[in-house]
Amino acid sequence: MATVTLGAENFEKTVTDNEIVLVDFWASWCGPCRQFSPVFEDASGKHPEIVFGKVDTEAEQALAGAAQITSIPTLMAFKKGHLVFSQPGALPAPALQQVIDAVVALDVDAALAAQQGEADGEPTES
């Protein structure tokens, strides 16, 4: 699957309606963004089960602000509608694959339950 353009009108629906969504926040004038773009595009072709979205921070300044983007490129990963990864910087292909593998393997329900338990003051199992 090729990457999809995300904006204010479809960002939330895309994140909540899909199991896993990776989002690249970028700008055309950003050298590292241009360097990361083909890596991101290539990964999208290898993982058709994952939605790969791109947000042009120049065109979508309000969305970038809401996402608290302070450096580009920034990669965010969402699983079951929850932000599970956010990191600025252009990743090489092997590092992007590590992120993808970790997000796929993550049991977000268990992680959220453990987080809720900690918030409630309950001890968690190690």
UniProtKB/TrEMBL annotation:
The keyword Transport applies. It comes from the Bacteria. Residues 2-105 form the Thioredoxin domain. Keywords: Disulfide bond, Electron transport, Redox-active center, Transport. SUPFAM superfamilies: Thioredoxin-like. Pfam families: Thioredoxin. InterPro entries: Thioredoxin, Thioredoxin-like_sf, Thioredoxin_CS, Thioredoxin_domain. PANTHER family: GEO12009P1, THIOREDOXIN 2. Belongs to the thioredoxin family. NCBIfam families: thioredoxin. This is Thioredoxin. The gene is trxA.
